[in-house]
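Moderator note: this is an archived Q&A kept for reference. The question asked for a predicted structure of one protein chain; the sequence and the answer are reproduced below.
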Amino acid sequence: FSGLHNQGKRLVVIFDEATGIHPGRWVQLEGLMTSANIKFIGIGNPTSRSSEFFRCFRSPEYFKINLSCFDSPNLIANGVTTMEDLEAELNFLKSLNDVDRQARLKSYKIVQPKLLTLLWVMAKAMKWGLKHPLFVSKVLGQFPEDDTNALIPLRVVEDAMERDALDAGQARSIG
């Protein structure tokens, strides 16, 4: 869409699965955003802190909306509205034998079939655990501290960048 101009009309650019959009497309978007009456909507799972989508969430320039599993009417209908509720349900499921666990999973209410269900959330909690980056992003709707394929976690790099460099005297006293 590079070179596209709004010609006095309104233009909306939508990036779906925005985390996976190539950085070059984001540069093209910046060029479009110079004109009036241009709106941008980025939609996606917060799966990577090394994405342009993450940079949007750190910028005051953008209006942001976060959705988590706790916003789903399917979880609300089952009384799971907090992390504590989720942890309690997971611990309860783990205490059951396979037959009882399956019966419990099948008993969950589904009031909006097209939205996130408690069955799916609990299946992912049992598979990944509550702290796994995929669970944090796809279920809790938060950017995980670590990317699943990162050699060095981004938070370690960011922390290092924010620290003041040691002066020569401090460096000698350490070594």
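Archived answer notes: The chain has nine helices and two strands.
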